[in-house]
Amino acid sequence: MGGQGGVSTLALVLVLGWALGGGANCPERELQRREEEANVVLTGTVEEIMNVDPVHHTYSCKVRVWRYLKGKDIVTHEILLDGGNKVVIGGFGDPLICDNQVSTGDTRIFFVNPAPQYMWPAHRNELMLNSSLMRITLRNLEEVEHCVEGAECPRLLSYGAQLSWQADSSEKMDYPNPNLG
Ligand SMILES: *[C@@H]1O[C@H](CO)[C@@H](O)[C@H](O)[C@H]1NC(C)=O
Q1: In a domain, 96, yes or no
Q2: Which CATH number fits the domain that encloses residue 58?
Q3: Which of 2-16, 55-69, 84-98 has the lowest mean pLDDT?
Q4: Is the dihedral of CA 46, 106, 32, 59 positive or negative?
Q5: Of all atoms in ligand 1, which is nearest to the CA of residue 128?
Q6: Looking at residue 76, what DSSP letter applies?
Q7: Ligand 1 site: residues with CB under 6 angstroms?
Q8: In a domain, 57, yes or no
Q9: pTM for this one?
Q10: In terms of CB atoms within 10 Å, which of 32, 39, 80, 157 comes out highest?
Q11: What positions does the domain NtA occupy (predicted)?
């Protein structure tokens, strides 16, 4: 097989894998459950992709944090970087998570937990992605905030419903970084 054929086959496999892993067929858990399982929920912008695992295609990202929606006190100073406004989040590409891919410059809502000890030392002082990335829209922020505040989560979030909200660009907010994807 020629080198070029190999490259395009690889590209096809990667695209298919992405489509299957991140597509609408992946059932997302309810927002309430996602909020309960994540001890930290924050908004932030991906600044750097790091520690790409060549076998599992997982990676970590350095993320500039804009706001904690939940669990600020759980983020200890060992986890904080660069004067306290950045963290490293691991677990991107985790096949157990539907929407698990980011690029540099993406701003998202992240549902994370401090890395458990069995993941040390590789993920020591990292936060681990716990469920799908969420786009920043006014409605998504409000829904997450309602859940965090302990109110009834206003609706049972399915991934399909989430996608249709995302399509409503009128709900996009002015955020410091315009790359909301
Ligand atoms: C999310 O966190 C919960 C603990 O709150 C854990 O049981 C679960 O395995 C985590 N999910 C992933 C995909 O890491």
Answers
A1: yes
A2: 2.40.50.120
A3: 2-16
A4: negative
A5: 14
A6: -
A7: 37, 94, 96-97, 113, 130
A8: yes
A9: 0.75
A10: 157
A11: 26-156
